[in-house]
Write a structure and sequence with these properties.
heterodimer; A: 63 residues; mainly alpha; 71% helix; B: 169 residues; alpha/beta; Rossmann fold; five-stranded parallel β-sheet; 8 helices; 5 strands; 55% helix
């Protein structure tokens, strides 16, 4: 796994720790991983759109 | 137009183009390879034999180790990681996949990646598919294939085909 340095506000860290304390996640890493996974899933259509645009360009005009 | 394109494909485009009855779109390639992991995955869907000119390549021991590493590092399936490894080790610059994750990994490794939509449009441009045939296949990708794609994106591709036709008249 790769370490991704990211700065979070104190409030966000506090809320994150609360989720861990309440037993939703085993630790901060697991919670952040889950959040990022959900974000990527949410952005899937946007990523797909980008990929299809590249396909159109390559298919019709690319070398 | 004779094509000199050399590419490696994973399972996705083969299945999706088969589902829309357009495997001949792979004729855009002069040489098309799939690794054995992809051949195994395709076995369930009638096999790699359906694809014109497709050649199955076995990975060397060293390549298999690298593929396992790629799979573990990026969380990819064996088909995708073997295909990317094949591109890397045999210096093949083109990779066909419909998997977004595999596509991003390939681009990170400086391998150009395109999916079923790109292959269909390329086949249309090269005269392998007619305009109507290409549009029908694109429409089928959203309507009857297992590919994850939205109708607005398919419509964008269809508009691009029609625009290209008008430009080249």
């Amino acid at each position: 796994m790769e370490t991704v340095p990211a700065k979070l506000t104190q409030r966000l860290v506090m809320e994150l720790d609360e989720l861990v304390k309440e037993g939703w996640y085993a630790n901060r890493s697991e919670a952040v991983r889950d959040a990022v996974r959900e974000l990527v899933e949410k952005m899937r259509v946007e990523l797909l759109e980008e990929a299809i645009k590249k396909d159109i360009e390559w298919g019709l005009y690319g070398k | 137009m004779a094509s000199k394109l050399t590419a490696v494909s994973d399972t996705g485009p083969v299945i999706h183009l088969w589902e829309v009855g357009c495997l001949k779109a792979f004729k855009v390639c002069g040489r098309l390879f799939v690794p054995t992991a992809v051949e195994s995955e395709l076995g369930k869907k009638g096999g790699a034999k359906r694809v014109p000119g497709l050649k199955v390549v076995g990975l060397t021991r060293k390549e298999k180790d690298l593929s396992a590493y790629v799979s573990l590092k990026y969380g990819l399936g064996m088909g995708e990681s073997e295909a990317i490894t094949l591109c890397k080790s045999r210096k093949i610059k083109m990779f066909f996949t419909d998997d977004l994750g595999a596509r991003l990994v390939a681009e990170r490794e400086n391998i150009e990646a395109h999916g079923s939509v790109g292959i269909l449009l390329r086949a249309f441009r090269e005269g392998i598919l007619g305009e109507e045939e290409a549009i029908k296949a694109l429409d089928g990708l959203a309507g009857k294939s297992t590919l994850f794609i939205t109708y607005p994106l398919v419509e964008e591709a269809i508009r691009a085909v029609k625009k290209y036709s008008r430009q080249t008249l």
